[in-house]
Amino acid sequence: MAISSRSRKILWARSGNKCAICQVNLIRLGGQKENVIIGEECHIISKSIKGPRGQHKIECANHDDYENLILLCSNDHVEIDHDFESYSIKRLKEVKRTHENWVKERLNSNPQEFNNPLSDIIILKKVEDANDIIEILKVCSGHILDYQKLKREKVPKEILILFDYIKDVVDVLSFMNYSQFEVMRLDLNNLIDEIENHGYLVFALQQKIDVELGANKSAWDVVNIQIIKSENVSIVGDYLFALYQTSKVIF
Ligand SMILES: [Zn+2]
User: Fewer C-beta within 10 Å: the chain N or C terminus?
Assistant: First the structure.
């Protein structure tokens, strides 16, 4: 059995895409860029009984579950499997727990640290109310809007209404008078509340994207809004770790 995409997402998000030992930035396999350190999803207890720590029994259902994995750079992977006596199960679990707690705390003070320019990973912050979206809209001239599509589940119409609203408002925000502005704020707040009542959360990020205009390339500020189920495993605290591919985001 291979590592499931669910276990992989939990591991990468909670590790902040960093090695749990040396905290170097890691990228996922499939990245196109050169000179990058590929993250390795390492087994705490080896699948093979003769492998590192392999004689111990796992506490989870199988060896490839998130509970038996730790995200490391290749150097530290070699180190923990070579010096398996120093790197006991207890110690590795402690290293992992400490690192994941550090990521959670660090996200609140310095989320930018986790936006890794070498990878296609972006970190979006949870939208608490309309003001969070309006502040970004004020400085943006475009938008990337997407939501988690689930089989056999109807998309709450408020998600689509919110997206239409943002598309309409992004161009006219600076021309609004006070009362128009306040009506917009109320509408946005109602939509955000309704979306949360349906079990979804709204995340936003102000992002620069390269736009080609003839021979010229320039960077535009865009608002990136992603709406996903609140139980999605790529959410860590108030932040969403998403894999970004040109104009599309994969959770
Ligand atoms: Zn490392």
Answer: N
